[in-house]
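[recover] target loaded
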């Protein structure tokens, strides 16, 4: 998922914003979904996207904080999730180096 958001330690980053990518890896009990073919029996990725989108609108200094908020909210909303890995990447960070991005990866287990 790609977003334009306002995260960063420097005040200028929170004023001007920048591009971010967020990826999630979800482990969940999908036994019912396999049997029923019903979206209510799985982790709806469209609803999961809305959680990420909402949290990305809240400015934070640290990517760790952003990832933690996304993880807590997703785990609270989707009881079927057993393990969630969140990677938040600031694309082209202002650190004086030529790099594609700086990332934080957080793994939560129920």
């Amino acid at each position: 998922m790609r977003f334009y958001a306002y995260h960063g330690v420097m005040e200028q980053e929170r004023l001007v914003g920048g591009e971010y990518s967020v990826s999630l890896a979800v482990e969940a009990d999908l036994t019912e979904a396999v049997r029923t073919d019903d979206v209510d029996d799985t982790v709806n990725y469209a609803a999961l996207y809305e959680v990420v989108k909402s949290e990305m609108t809240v400015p934070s200094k640290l990517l760790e904080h952003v990832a933690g908020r996304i993880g807590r909210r997703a785990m609270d909303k989707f009881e079927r999730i057993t393990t969630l890995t969140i990677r938040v990447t600031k694309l082209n960070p202002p650190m004086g180096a030529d790099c594609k991005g700086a990332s934080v990866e957080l793994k939560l287990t129920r």
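[recover] notes: The chain has a mean pLDDT of 95.
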